[in-house]
Design a protein that fits this description.
One of its GO terms (cellular component) is endoplasmic reticulum chaperone complex. By secondary structure, this protein is α+β, with helices and mostly antiparallel strands. Among the domains are: 208-257 and 342-401 and 422-429, ATPase, nucleotide binding domain (Nucleotidyltransferase, domain 5); 260-340, Actin, Chain A, domain 4, CATH 3.90.640.10; 435-522, no CATH class. 31% of the residues lie in helices and 30% in strands. Helix 5 (128-148) packs across helix 6 (170-182) and helix 7 crosses helix 13.
Length: 523
């Protein structure tokens, strides 16, 4: 997830906008000398009876080893939980990856997720939205400190945009907007799909010669292997003779659970099996959260090292019953353990090609696959891509995998802020889901916006004769996500009743460009 602020003004020409990334955007890096800030949050609530009177909080890279030492007081990668309930499969997978975490249902809020953090008598339940808002507010404070240190900048951060997975549900998008409001962000410009953001960053870096503005369309795929998921965003890129470039986000393929954390789990399982053998333990043993977290931390390091080396030496002092645990894990062992999963790594690309609205595409129709996400560096994933594409030349390592999403989000934020017609880059996004409306609880939804149509449209839908009291629901891929309970809306005069029904219930629906939210505007 990337946050971006629009803090510059005075961009007044095509060339200046085209150079926006390199001359007007700055990254706010963490205080430590690292390129990425882990989305960790450590909380130590101080209780008086059942009431929280204070909370010690530590964020990001400052958490250090706290999450290993006190896993029950640590939360990370919370974006995967936004808009979910404890019954969701994604939530069960989250618990499997995060040892010591306890999730409970908030019965007062339709089973939304509470994280139970702390230890001993100092334990409290926190809504996932509240924890996410704390972390987002911390990021804002960091940006303001960066501005304070720059004598040429005004210490003010008003307009913000945030990236989100392209497959994120309507509930997840709505909850993220609520979270930003809770974090005291005064002006949210929009939610930018991660694949779109990377494509924009690519386009801003892709300098064209005059003869290349020839109106010819080429296709690319942004292949993003993140911490929790893998996505493939197919987009077309057309430079016209008037020096503008049209970019159409055509389709998205995705695997919501295949990503860096999943691969770490595979390494964890290898090390765990060696641990069982070393100490002659039964496979049914369940490690305490602290030991499991230490093993998971080692698995994460091993996965990273094995991307560049052929083996990793595990050495954990006083790990079990005051005994050291030492072993070696090889890249061959790691790759053998995931050999049956290779198709999962490339399936999002095939799905994106197959679902292109203008007709199915093949790998021969795309010019290159643009790599993004830390886990895309994994050797066996890149080998699988070469096998799929037929040539290593089709793999484009042309964007900074740690920065491209933030940069693209910032550029799109500027476009949303200014609505400038001077911009040489025109971005059109197409829906990857169907959206519909239904009356009553059992009626099949009528499609309002179908998959493959442009986002940002509005339309009128006539619902026909209705009762005085009824339920109206909005649907995403056939599943309801918002309900309206309407009552007493019709005239009691039977002569005018039908006319009132016909006039009052032409509904106007909108699919927002800024956040891809399907909503009811008026009736």
């Amino acid at each position: 997830m990337s946050l971006s602020w629009v803090l510059t003004s005075g961009i007044n020409s095509q060339r200046q906008l085209w150079q926006l990334q390199e001359s007007h955007l700055r990254l706010s890096l963490p205080t430590r000398a690292r390129e990425r800030t882990p989305s960790f949050y450590h909380s130590k609530p101080v209780m008086k009876g059942k009431k929280v009177i204070d909370t010690e909080r530590v964020y990001g890279s400052q958490v250090g080893s706290l999450c290993t030492r006190f896993p029950e007081a640590c939360a990370s990668n919370l974006k995967r939980l936004l808009g979910k309930s404890v019954e969701d499969d994604a939530v069960s997978e989250y618990v499997n990856h995060h040892f010591g975490v306890t999730l409970v249902a908030d019965e007062a809020r339709n089973g939304s997720i509470l994280l139970r953090l702390g230890s001993g008598n100092n334990v409290a339940d926190f809504p996932v939205e509240e924890l996410s808002a704390m972390m987002l507010n911390h990021v804002k404070d960091r940006v303001l400190k960066t501005l304070d240190s720059n004598p040429d900048a005004q210490s003010k951060a008003e307009d913000v945009a945030i990236s989100i997975e392209p497959f994120a549900s309507q509930l997840s998008r709505l909850v993220l907007l609520d979270t930003l409001q809770l974090a005291d962000y005064s002006s949210v410009l929009g939610l930018v799909d991660e694949g779109t953001a990377v494509a924009i960053a690519f386009a801003s870096n892709h300098k064209l010669e005059d003869e290349e503005f020839d109106g010819k369309t080429v296709h690319y795929v942004v292949y993003d292997v993140g911490a929790g998921s893998t996505t493939a965003t197919l987009f077309s890129y057309t430079p016209y003779q008037n020096q503008t470039v049209h970019m159409d986000i055509e389709s998205v393929g995705y695997d919501e659970s295949f990503g860096g954390e999943f691969l770490t789990t595979q390494v964890y399982q290898l090390i765990f099996e060696k641990f069982l053998k070393e100490f002659n333990l039964d496979a049914s043993i369940v490690l305490p959260p602290k030991l499991a977290s230490r093993l998971a931390e080692t698995a994460e390091k091993a996965k990273t090292i094995l991307s560049a080396n052929t083996e990793y030496k595990v050495s954990l002092e006083s790990f079990y019953e005051d005994k050291d645990f030492k072993t070696i894990i090889t890249r061959e062992e790691y790759e053998n353990s995931v050999s049956s999963l290779l198709e999962r790594s490339s399936k999002p690309i095939l799905d994106a090609l197959k679902n292109c609205p203008s007709g199915p595409k093949t790998v021969s129709d795309i010019k290159a696959v643009i790599l993004n996400g830390g886990a895309s560096r994994t050797p066996f994933i890149q080998k699988q891509l070469v096998s799929l594409l037929g040539s290593e030349n089709k793999i484009a390592k042309v964007v900074n995998t740690d920065e491209a999403c933030a940069m693209g989000t910032a550029i799109q934020a500027y476009n949303l802020k200014t609505s400038s017609k001077l911009s040489p880059l025109v971005v059109n996004e197409k829906l990857i889901k169907d959206f519909g409306v239904s009356i009553g609880s059992s009626e099949k939804p009528a499609t309002v916006f179908s998959k493959g149509t442009l986002s940002g449209n509005s339309t009128m839908v006539s619902l026909g004769p209705l009762e005085d009291n009824f339920q109206l629901s909005l649907h995403e891929d056939g599943k309801p996500f918002v309900y309206y309970y309407l009552t007493g809306l019709f005239a009691k005069d039977p002569i005018h009743e039908v006319q009132a029904r016909e006039e009052r219930f032409d509904l106007e629906h909108s699919q927002s460009t800024k956040a891809k939210i399907f909503t009811l505007i008026s009736f």
